[in-house]
Structures are given as structure tokens and as C-alpha cells.
Amino acid sequence: MKIEHFPQxxxxxxIPQPSGEYxxxxxxxxxxxxxxxxxxxxxxxxxxxMIRDNQWDRLKLISGRLWRKIFDxxxxxxxxxxxxxxxxxxxLGSVLPLDSIIYLGEGHTPIVxxxxxxxxxxxxxxxxxxxxxxxxxSFKDRGMASAFSYLNFAAKxxxxxxxxxxxxxxxxxxxxxxxxxxxxxxxVKSAVLLPQGKVTPQQLGQPLGSGAKVIEIPGVFDDCMKVxxxxxxxxxxxxxxxxxxxxxxxxxxxxxxxxxxxxxxxEDLVVVVPIGNAGNITAVLEGFLKLYELQIITSLPVVVGxxxxxxxxxxxxxxxxxxxxxxxxxxxxxxxxxxxxxIGNPVSMPRVVRLVEKYRExxxxxxVQVVQVSEQEIMDAMLTANxxxxxxxxxxxxxxxxxxxxxxxxxxxxxxxxxxxxxAHALKFAVFxxxxxADDFEPAFGVVPKGELRNAPVVLAPPDDMATPAVGRRLKxxxxxxxxxxxxxxxxxxxGLSRLxx
Length: 502
Ligand SMILES: *Cc1c(COP(=O)(O)O)cnc(C)c1O
Ligand SMILES: [Zn+2]
Known about the structure:
The chain is of the alpha/beta class. A six-stranded mixed sheet has the order 4-5-13-10-11-12, with helices on both faces. It has three domains: about 115-135 and about 250-455, Rossmann fold, CATH 3.40.50; about 140-245, Rossmann fold, CATH 3.40.50.1100; about 460-500, no CATH class. Helix content is about 35%, strand content about 15%. It contains 17 helices and 13 strands. It binds pyridoxal-5'-phosphate and zinc ion (ZN). The site of pyridoxal-5'-phosphate (PLP) has 17 residues, from α11.
């Protein structure tokens, strides 16, 4: 739709101009640092940073009602930079001029309601928000769109030369980083560090296909993270992990979209996310808090974080109800099908602690909950979901397993239902489905396949003396007829079909 056709009231706001004053703010000592250069941790106290807009209060001069209208009407614009996460430009990157925004089709992923059978199984009404329908097939693209748009802007405005974008990854961060880096025409090279054998073949193929330098390291993600942190402290590289506060900013769009999907009425709604490095839950909490501050929403949804029993440091931390007695201890992870969240020492833990406290001040103690689930529950939930029309990855299965556990306790309020983050596409995690179907899990996973959830292809074997088709060989018409009839009869018998009467 053309701008002149929009209501007068929203016209001046439709195309945002760069505004605000962004700084990195330290979570430890509150010092601020200019976003003119790349910072990941506070140079003084080494704590993690968040991006703050020192002119945030200017946004309060616009009413919540008008903001809602602006975001809704922007959805009808055809301007590419505003088609993705930057529909919410003022909330997550207002200093960026539109011509530096990198848009590869990320964001605005569908929410799909569970059918009645799956709802009954879960014991709760819910929707999956399919973040696997992002360009690299995971939610990480939201954060990468932000981090690379910033990089693009900073490189141009500061005259930076060649940039090396680097990250450690459980598989999806590297796929997203490599994809966005490959789009940039400014001199950006990318290198990704992966724990050897701990990402799926699809996830390994993605950065290779995008032309990144892929480096496999022994150990688990936490070890890769240490190496990449050392590199970023001692060499001129752009760190693309969620330690990079721009990543968090972009991922806030997940909350904004949920609010918009529910016409900004998120009262009694539950939002469920898996927790790995805890960047995602940080962004989701921060996103809803920002909407609440601007009165774009008037109440906060309940946020539930889910972890596997095999990688549960955040769950263990919140087991202690008394904040004064809580003590964070990293855990040594065990093999998990929720491999993208298989992290024992989440980088964003300080952010989570602070934001949960802030969120609970407004939404109450139960406003944020953390649950853990078994590997068995994750697999059963993912497969059950996908047998009911979804495309959930194992981490989405983890969300469903968490919801089901909470629903059973009867303590989860949320009359409206729950939105579950299906963080990646099922296809990325096909190896775990294969292990389940083949009853091939290593004992450390502790997963025993349920017969009713298993599936396998049936191979038709024609008799030895029958001519069968093959690549590059043409059957005679009579041979083909024989083959077709024989195969069809075998299939009809297999499926228990009875012949039509003629
Ligand atoms: C990265 C990732 C997670 C974990 O998110 P964090 O921000 O690290 O907590 C979960 N699921 C998928 C598919 C991921 O790629
Ligand atoms: Zn500091």
C-alpha cells in the first residue's frame, strides 16, 4: 500500500528516521560505552552488556494505542527494510538508517494452533510459533539480522576495512552467521567454531554451503565458547554469539510479534522457550518488558523456560526460591537431543538473573517459571507434535514437554493458552528422529522408543524373475504393466484395501 493511502494519523511515523542514543550498558558496574566500536563484555568488570537507548523516554510521548496502530499499518508496507524485524525499528535498532538494514526474509513467522488431539495430549491449549521458517531455519536469524545490520552500518560509517565475523555454535548460530555474512558486499568473512560431532549434518552443511571457514573443535559448546571468547579478546574479530548485545536486540522481535499476533492482548497468555545459552529467554523477557513500559501491552504474559535434565543449570538455579540463597553453578552437560540447547554455562546468565527479577516485580513470582524435562519426554513430545501437523525441532519438543509437565501440576494459569517457540525446523534435527525410529540411541541419552511413535519405510521386493525399472533402463510395455500390477497389489494388501466392485 502506498503511504498516501494510510490514515493521516500514522503517516508521519510509517517510515522511521534514525533516532535515539544507543550505548552498551554493563550489567555489573552500569558503565556505558559507545556503540561506535564493538564491545562484548565490560572492559573494566568483564560483565555482559545490554544495549540501552538513553533517549528511550521519547518513545513514551507516543501512546500505546498509536504504537499499535503504527506497527499494524507498517505490516502493509512494501519497503524491504521494514518487512522483517525492523517493523519495530524504534524498539530494537532505531539508530540504524534503513539503507544499512540487511533483510533476508527473517521474522514474522507463523503461529499454528495445536489441533484438539494434540491439545488434549498436552493438557493445555497452545500454538507453535514456527521460527524454523526463518531463512536459515532457526530463530537465530532474528539476532543475526540485527547484528549484521549494525555491522553493516558501523563498517560504512566508521570506514572499517575487512571484518572477520566469528562465532561458536551448537549449530544454528553458525548457520545464521554464515548466511548473513555471505550476503554482505562489504568485506566480511566468516569463521565458525563447532564442537566436533555435536551438530547435525544439516547444521554442518549450512555454513559450508554459505562459504564460511568451518572449524571443528573437540569438546562441547562450552569449550568452543571459551576459545572464541579468547579470540575476541585478543584479535580484531566481530563476535556473533549472543554475548553480542545486538543479537539480543534482534531476538526481542519474537515477543513483539507474539503481542501483535494476539492484538496486543497477552493477558493470561503463556510463552514457552527452551534455554541454552539463555540469549533467547533474555530477549523474550526484555521484549515484553519494553512493550509494557510503552503501554503497548498492558499486562505481561507468563514466560516459561525449559531445560533438559542433561543441561539444566538455569533450572537448578531457580529451584531455590529465596533469591538471597541462590547460587549459580555451571553443570557438565550430558548428551541431549535438544542439542542446540546443550549448554552447561550460559553466557547470558547474569542477564537472566536481572531480567527475571525485574519481570517478577511486575508479573509476580509465577510470571517466570523454569522447568526441566527428560530426554524421553522431549523426543516423545516432538514426534507427537509432528504427527499432528507441526514441523517442530527437538527444542520445540522440549517446550511442549515442559508445557505438558506444568499443565499436569494444574498450577499453570493462562486461560488463553500457550505460545511455544519451535526454535528451528524439524529437518535440521532429523538425526534424532532417525535414532528414535531405528532404536539407535546411545545409552547416555536414556531414550527408549515407543512403538506407536516409530515409523520406517517399507521396501517392496518384486519376485526375482520380474523385470523392474531402474535408472537408465526402459521396460517393455508388457513388463511395465506386470510390474505396476504386482506392486499395486502388494501395496493394496499392505494397506488392507479391498478392491472396488465394478
Ligand atoms: C540457539 C538455540 C536454542 C537455545 O537458545 P539460547 O538463546 O542459546 O538459549 C534453542 N533452540 C535452537 C533451535 C537454537 O538454535
Ligand atoms: Zn562493568
